[in-house]
Design a protein that fits this description.
Helices cover 51% and strands 12% of the residues. The chain is α/β, with parallel strands linked by helices. The protein folds into two domains: 91 residues, SRP54, nucleotide-binding domain (Four Helix Bundle (Hemerythrin (Met), subunit A), Up-down Bundle), CATH 1.20.120.140; 191 residues, Rossmann fold. It has an eight-stranded mixed beta sheet with strand order 3-2-4-1-5-6-7-8, sandwiched between helices. Helix 4 crosses helix 5. The mean pLDDT is 88.
């Protein structure tokens, strides 16, 4: 059974939360778009140049922006006459098609592989992106779905990180395995998985140190944690989830570059999309890294971490 299929979520409520979370992005993006086409009737080179600027300044990213512009140019050349009134619809179509082509972004498409018990998710990301909060919210949703969950506090370099995940464990009502500050993170991971196996836990979430000290140092540390976990659960971790802060715009791209170069990231969670006009970063990250965006954070509430559904995202972004 798919992991996301365990979730019994209210789709109408999710859409309302998504609409609220993307409100500032929509206002900013379409405000810029309206100004770009003001007084023009057809989509010509000047309009496309202005659209390119709109997309780049909306944190879609340069490469993805050029991809979108090229697609629209081909559309305009094929249809011969395209009015600026049609531009919003065409842009919506091309962004939806782009996200579809990247694959892996449907909330119904992810499944726990057979035999992966416990299913182990190692969570990585720099400090301040909402990594531990994402772990806590995901643990709550998994537990609500009827799964047993255990957390591992393997970010042992900051006392606050261990305390924070312990608070989330207490709040959610799931066990947390931790050691003293400064302990070997791999040792914490080993103890967590050993306890999970002994207690027949369904899903394990391992927090890791939130720093990019050096690429080699990060790679060595995460590789060691992997090796140690595999001694307890062959194939672990089954998912390496990178958490990035969507409100940082292009800095989120840079974090994704650094971590994907340092370790084998298999999924993404993009947080803090509410209260920012930088929601376009979701489009760029989905396109550029070809890594499934599995969750987006659209609010501070415990239910505001949503499985990412590209169709709902595009609909929310473009619907009036």
């Amino acid at each position: 059974m798919g992991l996301f299929k365990f979730f019994s979520r209210n789709k109408e409520q999710d859409r309302e939360q998504l609409d609220r979370g993307l409100e500032k992005t929509k206002e900013s993006f379409f405000g810029k778009l309206t100004r770009a086409v003001a007084g023009r009737s057809t989509v010509d080179d000047d309009v496309l140049d202005d659209l390119e600027e709109v997309l780049v300044t909306s944190d879609v990213g340069v490469e993805t922006t050029l991809n979108i512009i090229n697609r629209i140019e081909r559309r305009v050349a094929r249809d011969k006459y395209v009015s600026t009134a049609e531009l919003k619809r065409i842009l919506r179509d091309e962004i939806a098609a782009l996200l579809t082509e990247t694959g892996g972004n449907d909330s119904e498409g992810f499944e726990i592989p057979a035999g992966a018990h416990p299913y182990v998710i190692m969570v990585v990301g720099v400090n301040g992106v909402g990594k531990t909060t994402t772990i806590g919210k995901l643990a709550w949703q998994l537990k609500k779905a009827g799964l047993t969950v255990m957390l591992g506090a393997a970010d042992t370099f900051r006392a606050a990180a261990v305390e924070q995940i312990a608070v989330w464990g207490e709040r959610v009502g799931v066990p947390v395995v931790k050691q003293q500050m400064g302990s070997d993170p791999a040792s914490v991971a080993f103890d967590t998985l050993s306890s999970a196996v002994a207690n027949d836990i369904d899903v394990v979430l391992i927090d890791t140190a939130g720093r990019l000290h050096t690429k080699k140092g990060l790679m060595d540390e995460l590789s060691k944690i992997r090796r140690v976990m595999q001694k307890v659960v062959p194939g672990a971790p089954h998912d390496v989830m990178l958490v990035v802060d969507g409100s940082t715009g292009q800095n989120a791209f840079e974090q994704a570059k650094q971590f994907t170069a340092a370790t084998d990231v298999t999924s993404l969670a993009i947080t803090k999309l509410d209260g920012t006009a930088k929601g376009g970063v979701v489009i760029g990250i989905s396109d550029q890294f070809k890594i499934p965006v599995r969750y987006i954070g659209v609010g501070e509430g415990i239910e505001d971490l949503q499985p990412f559904d590209k169709r709902s995202f595009v609909d929310s972004l473009f619907d009036d």
